[in-house]
Every structure is written in structure tokens, then in C-alpha cells.
Amino acid sequence: MPASPSRSARPAPGGRARPGGAPADLAEVWEVITGMYEGYTAGDRERIDSFLDPEATVWDSATPELLCGKTELDRVRDGRPTEDGAPAETALTAYDQVVDVFGDLAVARYWLRVDFRTGPPALARNTALLRRTHLDDHWLVIHLHEDIQSAPDQGRNLGRTEAPGH
Questions:
Q1: What is the DSSP string of 19-69?
Q2: Cα–chain center distance at 138
């Protein structure tokens, strides 16, 4: 497992990329991933959803079933603990990305660090599949898979109420 960045560390622009992706495409895909988490930290569900295909599938770390589409994702989001019952998160940092682009499809693999007001951070390995839309040439997440590697209380729902897969 890679070492976590410090709370103030920012991911390096472009990260590691395997051959086959134009630099502009790699940067756009990574901007979707980081924009999604920025939307989460801002508490902006609409912004998060702007990066998701409405029929996206999600393997959420706290939910055993595959979530299919926005309706199922919203059902899980709405059932999560409120701020009073959830751990206080202070930051989400996506880092150490590996992105491949194959025409209109992209695969992003990365680590996500979740910092809390108290206690140690949680670390998750994530894989996101994205497709380029032909309407506006933007990328949308079509599948997100989260795999918790370490958590303050392994197996506990991390309490995130908005981000897909979180």
C-alpha cells in the first residue's frame, strides 16, 4: 500500500499515465475525478452528479449490492448517517493516479485518502471507468469501484453522504 500524502499534499498534475492517452485527455479524465471529490467536500450533490452518467454503476464500500443508476445511488446516499451520526471528514485527497484512454473510454485507478477531524485517515483503492460524451465532448463516470484498504474502524460505514462510492 502506498504511503499517504500529508494533509496538505496535492496530487501531481498528470500523475502516472501509461502509453495510449493524449496528455489533454489524461488531464480531462483526472479533472473529472478530482472535481467529483471537490463537489463532495463542498456539499454539492448537483456538482458531483454532473460528473456521473445517470445510469452509472457503483460498488460502494458500505453497500453489498451493485448500485445501478442515480435512483439507487440516491437511495443509499439518503440512508446514510447525518452529520450528527457520521465521522467528521475534513478532506478527501485523490492521488497516485494511473489513467489509460482508449478512444472514448478511459480507466482511472487511484488512491483516495479520507481525513477525519479526529482519528487516523481511511485509505481506499478506486477504479473509475469513464466515457466521452458526443454531445459536448466531456467525460462522465460510468462505473466506480471503491475498495477500502484501511479505515479508522475497518468495516464501519465511513459516513459519507454524497460522493458516489463513498
A1: TT--HHHHHHHHHHHHHHHHHHHTT-HHHHHTTEEEEEEEE-TT-SSPEEH
A2: 17
* Residues 141, 154: Cα–Cα separation, whole Å: 27
Q: How confident is the model at residue 19 (pLDDT cuts 50, 70, 90)?
A: low
The pTM (predicted TM-score) of the whole model is 0.78
Phi-psi domain of 31 (left: phi exceeds 0; alpha: psi -120 through 50; beta: other):
alpha
pLDDT of residue 62: 79
Q: What angle do CA 51, 130, 159 make, to 5 degrees?
A: 55
Q: Which pLDDT band, with edges at 50, 70 and 90, does 20 fall under?
A: low
Q: Which three cell numbers stand for residue 4?
A: 499517504
